[in-house]
Amino acid sequence: MKQAKHTEKVLVSACLLGYRCRYNAEVLEKRNIPEPDETIIPVCPEELGGLPTPRSPSFFEDSRTGREVLHGNGRIVSETGKNRTTAFINGAKKTLEIARDVGAGKAYLKERSPSCGCHTVYVGESQVPGIGVTAALLKENGIQIISVE
Ligand code: SF4
Question: pLDDT tens, 109-135?
């Protein structure tokens, strides 16, 4: 009897797969991400949070990044000064919901994004150590996050 192939579901930042969802609508070169036994579920937390593409860039207001923002102790603002914290948190929650629905235990995420960054994010035009809002929420809920440049 033929055995069904086991595939692990993994979330991937949609922009890494060539989707036009970046703030400036730029299409990135598609990364060769999955392992042979992985099934990709593309997600863009910022679009899931209701933000349009294109959109003005967003960044953390100060050194309080994803973890703090998730717990009401920091803000994300747009280049034009709009408070986008709610949209980012909503996008993170929807991404977690998707991960739970499909049973994903791992996420490949775009480094430096205020949603998806795993180690580095922006405060204004400066890169600082920190974590994006979605990356922080996934990590808090036991999902392995893997940084992709
Ligand atoms: S880095 Fe994340 S939030 Fe930003 S465009 Fe890519 S998938 Fe969307």
Answer: 999 999 999 999 999 999 999 999 999
| Dist. CA 90–CA 141, nearest whole Å | 15
101: three-class secondary structure by DSSP: helix
Q: Which residues line ligand 1 (CB under 6 A)?
A: 13-15, 21-22, 44-46, 110, 113, 115-116
Whether the pLDDT of residue 51 is over 70: the answer is: yes
Closest CA to 10 of 44, 48, 49, 37: 37
CA-CA-CA-CA dihedral for 8, 14, 17, 21, to nearest 10 = 170
Helix (H, G, I), strand (E, B) or coil at 140: helix
- Ligand 1 centroid, distance to 145 Cα (angstroms): 14
Q: How many CB atoms lie within 10 A of CB 32?
A: 6
Nearest to 64 by CA among 46, 47, 85, 50: 85
Domain limits of the chain?
8-22+38-148
